[in-house]
Structure formats: C-alpha cells, structure tokens
Give the backbone structure.
Amino acid sequence: MANRTVIPFGPQHPVLPEPIHLDLVIEDEHVVEAIPSFGFIHRGLEKLVEKKDFTEFTFIAERICGICSYIHGMGYCQAVETVMGLEIPERAKWLRTMWSELSRIHSHMMWLGLLADAFGFENLFMACWRLREGILDVIEETSGGRVIFGAAKVGGCRRDVPDDLLARIPAQLNAVEDELRAITNVFRDDFSVRQRLCGVGLLSRNDAYDLGAVGPMLRASGVAQDSRLDGYAAYDKIAVEPIVEESGDCWGRTMVRIREIYQSFDILRHVLPNVPPGPVDMKITGAPKGEFFARLEQPRGEVIYYVKGNGTKFLDRFRVRTPTFANIPPLLKMLQGCQLADVPVIVLTIDPCISCAER
Amino acid sequence: MKQKPLTMTRVALGSLLRKPATVPYPAARKPVYLATRGHIAIEEDKCNLCLICDRRCPTGAIAVDRTGKTWAIDRLRCIQCNHCVDVCPRKCLAMENDYTTPMQMKRSDVVPVPFTPPQPKPKPAAAPAPTSDSPLQAKEERPGERNHEPPDQSSAD
Amino acid sequence: MNLFRKSPWIIHYDGASCNGCDIEVLACLTPRYDVERLGIINTGNPKHADILLITGYINEQSQPVVRTIYEQMPDPKVVVAVGICASSGGIFRDCYNTKGGVDSTIPVDIYVPGCAARPESIMDGVVQALDLLERKRKEKKTRRRAIAPTPTSEVPTP
C-alpha cells in the first residue's frame, strides 16, 4: 500500500481568491479523501436581523456576497414582499430581471477568467477580465456601483434607469458579445484547454442529484433544473430554457456556463426594449408578519431565502441557503480519486463563493 | 468533436493589433458616470441638524452634533449606500461621483453647520442629549484602537 | 517617481469580506487597470511580499492566519486595509463574530475607503504604500547604522 499523506490546501493559496481550507488525503498522486474546514469568512450576518430593521437589512443582504450581490438583495426583498403581500410595480420587476442577468454575465465571465488562471492560461484570464470590464461599465452606469449594485429595495428598486440609457445598452452588450465569441471558442476548441478539462472531475447524474448539487453543476450532469422557470420577477414573461450538458466533467460545466452567458445576452435583448413605463417603487406600510421561502437562480445555482416576520420591524429569523454550500458535498465526491494537480481546477469548477457559503 | 487550430493565437494577435485596453490610471482616468456612487457631500447651508441621517445610517458613519453645530462623516465607515441622501428631508445631502482617497490616519470629516435652531420650542434639551459628548471624541481615534462603540468611552470611565 | 525604485510585490489575503473588494483587487491586475506596469506583482508567498493587502474584517478564525502572514513577511512591510470592512468593520461591525477592522490584529498603515473599494482607489493606496515603504526602508537603514557599534543590543521591533 502506498503511503498516505495529508496535504493542507488553503486558506491562503495562490489560485484561491478566497480562503477555503481542504485537507487532502493523498495516496501517491491520487486524492483519497478531502476534508473541508470552514469558518474563515463566517460573519453571522443572519443574526443582524435582530438589530437592523427589515428595510435596512437590504444593505446587509446585498453584502452577503460581492459577486452575486444584486440577486442576494433582490431575493431578500422578494421574500419580504411576499410575506407582506406586496405586488411591486411592473417596471421594477423588469429592471430586477435586467440587473440579475447582468450580474449573471459578469459572474460567469469572471469565473471563466479564474478557471483559465487555475489551469495556467494567463493570457486567456486577462482576455476574459478585459471583456468583463465592458459589462461592469453597463452595471455602473445603470446602478451606480461596480460590484455592489445598491439597487434593491423592499417594494421595488432604489433607482430608476432612464429610457435613453436602456436603449443604449444593447449596442454595448453586442460589442462585448462579439468579442466574447472568440474567447469562448478557445475554451471550446483549444487543445490544451480540453486536455485539462475533459474527463476531469466526473460527477454522474445520479450523484449530482443525490448529493444535492445545484445550478451549473447539476445541469452539467444532465438534470434540467433552473429556478428561473418558477417565474419570479419578470421571468414569467420570458421563455427560459435550462441549459443542459450530459458529460458531467469540468468541460461540461464550463460549456454550461458559456452557453448561459449567451442565454443571458438573449434574455437582456428581450428585456431591455420591453421595460414598461411607470414607477419603480411603492410605499410600504406596516411590517412583515408570517414566513416565506423564496427560491431564486443565482449564477452559481439555486439560492433559498427564508424570512420569518413577527409583525414588528425586526424580523424573527432570516436564513440563506447559498448554492456554494449545496455544492460542497458534490465537490468532495469529485475530489475522491482525482489527481493532486487537478484539485485547483476541480475546486474552481464549482465556482466557489466562500463568503456566500459561510455568510 | 471538431477541433479548430490556433484559436488562442487569433485572440492574442487580435489583442496585439487592438489599441491598449489599459487606462494608465494616475495619468489618465476613466470618466465617471452620472450614477456612480462616490462620496457623500453636504450643502451645510440647507441642513437643519435634524439627526435623521445620523439615526438611519446603517453603519453609524454620520455623527450630527446639535450643540456643537457640526455634521461629521467618517469616510472609513461610509458604505456609499445612498440611504442618507434618500431620507434627508431637506435634500441637502448629495452623492458625488468621486471616490474618497486613501488615508493613513482614521479621521472624520467635520462640517460646521450655520443653522440656528428656533429657541422657544417646547423641548429643546431632549434631542441633543444622546450625541452631545460623542462626536468630538470619536474624531480623535488612533488607528490601533478598536472602535466598536466610541460614544461609550467617556461614560465608562 | 523614482525609476530605480524597488518593484514591490503584493500579497492579498481575504480576511472575511463579501468578495466585492477581492474581485476589485483582482481587477487591478487585469488589463483595464494593470498595476504590473508599476512593477507590482501579485504573489502568493508571504516571504516574497512587501505589501499586504487585506480585504474584509477579522474574525476569530482568520485572526491567526492574518497574524502568521504578517509575521512571515520580511521587513520593511506595509499593510493596506482595503475597503470599509477592513478599515472599521463596516456594515458587519455589529455581527457577533467580528473582531473589528484589520487594525485590531496587526498595525495598518493605509486605509482604502469604499464599499467596494474602487480599483482606482486601491491603486492610489498601493502608490501611497510605495512611498511609505521607501520611507520605512530608509528609517531601517539609519536605525541599523545607529545600533551597529553594539551588536549585542536588542534588535528593534518595528
């Protein structure tokens, strides 16, 4: 029997932008077991609902994670609105859809860059991040922030986007999309990229389902599940087709995300000309009483917000089940039997967002 | 699946021929947008020291002193959420587009407010009491100190 | 700027942030902002680094990690706290798991405000850190000269 060694991976590691710690049990070059340990970014922000009133908590909900910040704020607001029985204005719904698709594009493009960095393709990393700045410009022009949008509000949106700006965005998006085609072709066709991704980190359809994978992880293993089909915000008026790949390896997950970027571009092209006129927010009176689970689709997968109000302006309980948290058990399964050199790539393909997972 | 050669070479050559993507920052900078959230500015002439921004700020960055007649903001606590601008009844706060420059010491920006509260109101002493002693001491924090609850330092002694 | 100045290498550690500042720190390295043209390289090894960029506040579990990284860095070193959370705890100041800003654990030289800190702001902070680094290096040199005659005397801690 070969020697067993335990290699600590993280929390401060060159390929990881965030602290996650894995103890990798190695037999020769193969990983036998991976033991995660968490808590480096635990903030305990769910408990802050007892100190901040439910409208102010939106600022904290937006800062659960800086990458999918808008969807966090929006999901919290949506849960509170459902508890309070509010029907938000139509324009706010469409603007919410626009911002959540923009944040999906920015998150996936960022992830493509990080993946390229993880398998040592520096040039591709730079190319992805150069294009991502184009999306960030659109985000900043519409919402005012580059990463923290600050646009979510209980009862609608905190700021309106002028119509002439909405009419100008599609041209900017098309320019980004044209350039992006060349880069995603590299991910699809390049020999060295396929060498690193094809057949690495296999997750079978059954495993993905049983272990509770969500989002692109689940869809890359052949399960068509997408929370946008539930029709929150304006998604009930948009045809969203879940993007499914059958291969279940790192390459499949990359393809799912790449195709989702183009899908988001398509959705935005449909959303932007159709944003109806009208107010973007409404006056809220009273306080939430009751409880609700809101399910939304984040770039990383399905996210669940639980809100319980007791009729005062402070909520009783707020809980988030973030996609990264759900994707950790499948990650540990994928790491079993892989080679040590593939660990960074496999860890990155779940698109880890540790600050989401630990809140 | 089909494999096309030289896809990355084409991207790399394209980047060579394109004009540089870099904005050489200290020399030139990207124009800011109208919506960009940078820092909070106050038109002190309009302010009536109503304390609403002080109370509603989610991080407690704004300190309004009614007796000393100052409005102070700790830039190292402000998260640019725009909430104070939204709640200000006199619309004297505004979000400027420029970001705050980095600093080596913690300090608050204190703005004197030339507002004289009307004297013959029924309860003049009730409102200023909670913040009367705090802002001036919060300003002198040293960077090594923990600053969880600066207003309590004087009362604890 | 002095052309022959040392190129500082930075190390980035995410204390306990929301990721917003982290991706902005990474954005500084990418084509739009490209700090490498100032000679700045992001390294993963604390022993190679001159400037420590910390995003996010400090909690119970990240405190020893931050302290270890700081102690491993060679002198002179500069600590830059990026973002509101690193400077003062920010919106998470009231959380039960918060120890406060980075200055609750290690001495901080430069605070970069912003939530999330903009790349321009981070670059300003790093440029300030360069000047500070130069000053610290000179101070160290003069101090070494001052204590040179008595080699047995205690090595001053910065």
User: Anything to note?
Assistant: The beta strands of chain A are 4-9, 21-27, 30-37, 152-153, 156-157, 289-298, 301-310, 315-321. DSSP finds twelve helices and eight strands in chain A. Residues 200 and 342 of chain A are 7 Å apart (CA to CA).
